[in-house]
Amino acid sequence: MGQSPSAALDRESSFSHRFGFLSSSSLGSSDGFSDEILANRDFTAEIPDECLAYVFQFLGPGDRNRCSLVCKRWLCVDGWSRYRLSLDAQSEIEASLPSIFMRFDSITKLTLRCSRRSISLNDGALVAISVRCQNLTRLKLRGCREISDKGMSTFAKNSKNLRKLSCGSCTFGAKALNAVLDYCSNLEELSVKRLRGIHDGAEAIGPGTAASSLKTICLKELVNGQSFEPLVVGAKNLKALKIIHCLGDWDRVLQLIGNRNRNGKENLHLNNYNSNGNNDALMEIHLERLQVSDIGLSAISKCAKIENLHIVKTPDCSNYGLVSVAEHCKLLKKLHVDGWRTNRIGDEGLVAVAKHCPNLEELVLVGVNATHLSLGAIASNCSKLERLALCGSGTIGNTEIACIAAKCMALKKLCIKGCPISDIAIEALGSGCPSLVKIKLRKCRGVSCEAGEWLREQRGSLVINMDACEVDGGFEASVSNGGIHEVGVDYPQVVSQVVDRDASTSSNGRLALLRSKFGLFASRNFVACTFRRWSNNEDSFNGNL
């Protein structure tokens, strides 16, 4: 419209020149397309290999396997553009390894997994893989019981670009890991789980040349995890340390880590180095099912840059250790505490967190008997709190939830499980927590299905998941970006579930009954009194802090 016929003709001619394979002359007469030509023509022939490889990146492994069967070209493009590969690492696969890695010659991430009932590939196969995969940066081994220290040592010599190693249920031990730490100088992540070669009396592991590059160490279910002490202490740029269900006393290891960070800060101050030279880089510590006490918690409090701390099922830890952490780790953003119902961590430790950690964004309390004293302090002082999970506590009731609803203005996700709350708490949430987008209620017997429907009616945009109602559906999303990990059989993953609001509507009679019920509460002015009481006591809470 508004263009000359010659301009339109030029544009059409340019389009035909650029996409000649779609021109009418190549497809048939102007009266109609030739079915025979259309059936035999490959319209992807004009697409460059790089573009085709880019499209393949959006497909899953199954779809890519099917695409590789279309033609030889697609088979070739899929081979050189695939960087991840997962293999069933049984012994029978050894004969096929040359052809597999001749086709997939660009692999950087490899997973070798073998079931318990099968015999895994051996040292020779692993060495052959290391020779053919020169670009390998990540390796995951699961159940490869035929790989020995000798095979892993040779693999490490051939895989000097390795950055990430994860091994579980294997039989090699300290010699293999020391070889990896010596030869793979760029190693950044090391995860070890159930290594049978790591036993009592095993030689020390680390630090090796990889100590300067390691950023994450994860140790799970080890009989003698203390053999990693030289590595954990010597990794001066370590940012994340996870020790889960490992036997032995871990207070000594944590003390060495704390002393290393303290000495690093003293040397930094004396030598007047800039901030880039600070060795105090540890930002995440995860302690689960360990023999660790307040001595260990006091030691890690010397790591002042910690932002993420998990204290899960450590029965020897108490308020004293948590107070020490709160007083020194003021940058704390995520705190997970599973008190295992030992009643050793409670209001005293949480009040210290509220006082010294104003940047707290995520708080998970499992089996911790917190009351309105600590929750009110956290709600008042931690203005950035966005994610809160309260599970398995007999002291968290309507009063505590009303306090949270009145003061947690930034709260977005809330999970309450196994707490003695009732419909009164749901009424408080109906008008509180203005930023709330997701709420999950589990095993709260005092909360009725009608209360959930009322809350959904009051706040239409709120995503609600209640086990009292069988109308919930959709996908599940984690409470936090990193997710709340499962910490035991009695504590499933804290999630929020998307609910179809149209499917959750109920009869008008039940809603009318609920309205009358809440009307009775309103006449008693229960919630209003509760909010007023906490508002009046807010100054006293702040004064105590």
Automatic annotation (TrEMBL):
InterPro entries for the chain: F-box-like_dom_sf (IPR036047), F-box_dom (IPR001810), FBXL15_LRR (IPR057207), Leu-rich_rpt (IPR001611), Leu-rich_rpt_Cys-con_subtyp (IPR006553), LRR_dom_sf (IPR032675)
Domain of life of the native organism: Eukaryota
PANTHER family: F-BOX PROTEIN SKIP2 (PTHR13318:SF133), PARTNER OF PAIRED, ISOFORM B-RELATED (PTHR13318)
Cellular component, GO annotation: SCF ubiquitin ligase complex
This protein's name: F-box domain-containing protein
Residues covered by the F-box domain: 47-87
Biological process according to GO: SCF-dependent proteasomal ubiquitin-dependent protein catabolic process
Listed Pfam families: DUF7885, F-box-like, LRR_6
